[in-house]
# Entry
Amino acid sequence: MISARPARVLALLLATWLALVASAQADTWQARVTNISDGDTITVITPAGQQERIRFYGIDAPESGQPFGRASTDHVKKVIGDAGFQVEIAEIDRDRYGRIVGMVIVNGLNLNRDLVRVGLAWVYPQYCKRPECREWRELEQEAKANKLGLWREPGAVPPWEWRRGQRDRQPNQPAASNQVKGGDCLIKGNINRQGDKIYHVPGGRYYEQTKIDESRGQRWFCSEEEAGAVGWRRSRE
# Structure
């Protein structure tokens, strides 16, 4: 009986080669990371000195209100921090929010792929269409079989489904008080005296003391992606 292992190794080598070819075709440049919003979004300074938000291609990390949302963010912070906050961006596209969508490479490590491998992100089926996505889906299944990261959570809910659930519930929620928001939309979108729009996530240093006054344009968000898309930035503490 012929083992399936050689065929699998060959398939992985082919996927890796295709990924390298695809990356070579992308616009690749060095960048310095200035902020890590969550497990799939960072802010960088480009070689031209411009600030850009980067959305990791082909994956979706847990939101801050989901299990393993913090763990996913912490993993990205550690990998990038250990590299002195220097990364390589393989730019692929721009999304509807104006963010660059691409691969984030850290000392030769594809961080998009690595998050899937360690069970801290899903492959995003709606958007992951490049050749390397086939291998990423296999890595996702391996992480799930080995109960790595978020796969330890029974009935883990993909972030795109979780966000849809938050949006569907919002019209039926009562107006938010200063202290507690109904449902799971727990991110506080504050506007300070200087007019800066800053959001605070549960567990943040200023989260509990931040009061939301919707009459001043302050608001609640269901995800960090939602907050960033309309101009809020994450609190640095």
